[in-house]
Design brief:
40% helix, five-stranded mixed β-sheet, alpha+beta, two-stranded antiparallel sheet, 2 domains, globular
């Protein structure tokens, strides 16, 4: 307990960096400039803060907290709101030389090393769900199928979801 490198960012700054990254898609490089830190420090801070935030879910009203994709689809069905789903890519460092799936991180669209996440929002712009990151070469529809969204929409309530052609 207490071993290891000490945090250069206090918890509030780590939380702020994570929330700005998740809400506005600001890159780790930009956050590092804002906070006067190395990019690796910001990456570590976001990696530490994001899992507890995901476990808490998203609060969309005082009595509703959404933790899973199934809960998001049920919420959209009950409220009659329209959902918007899209994949987003975040640039990352090139994976290590010995990694067997190293080439999977190269995005066909951007020709860079990226990870892709699927984000579901409502029409008001509130993020309702953010999936686990997949290698950048994964197509949006494949990511959607692997996350279970297609299955939930086929067997769940009638929900209007807007998506792009990807």
């Amino acid at each position: 307990m207490g071993a290891g490198a000490k945090h250069r960012l206090v918890f509030v700054d780590r939380l702020l960096a994570t929330l700005v990254h998740l809400r506005h898609g600001v890159t780790h490089d930009v956050l590092a400039c804002w906070f006067g830190m190395d990019r690796s420090t910001i990456t570590r801070a976001i990696g530490e803060v994001r899992p507890p935030l995901a476990g808490r879910g998203r609060t969309v009203s005082p009595d509703v907290r959404l933790r899973t994709l199934a809960e998001v689809i049920d919420h959209l069905g009950v409220t009659g709101k329209t959902g918007i789903v899209d994949g987003t890519e975040t640039r990352v460092r090139r994976p290590a030389v010995g990694r067997k799936d190293r080439e999977a991180f190269i995005s066909d669209k951007n020709k860079q090393n990226t990870v892709k996440t699927m984000v579901v929002t409502d029409v008001d712009g509130r993020v309702l769900f953010c999936s686990q990151a997949k290698p950048g070469s994964c197509a949006d529809i494949t990511h959607t199928r692997q996350s279970g969204l297609v299955r939930l929409l086929a067997g769940g309530p009638a929900v209007e979801i807007l998506a792009d052609a990807g």
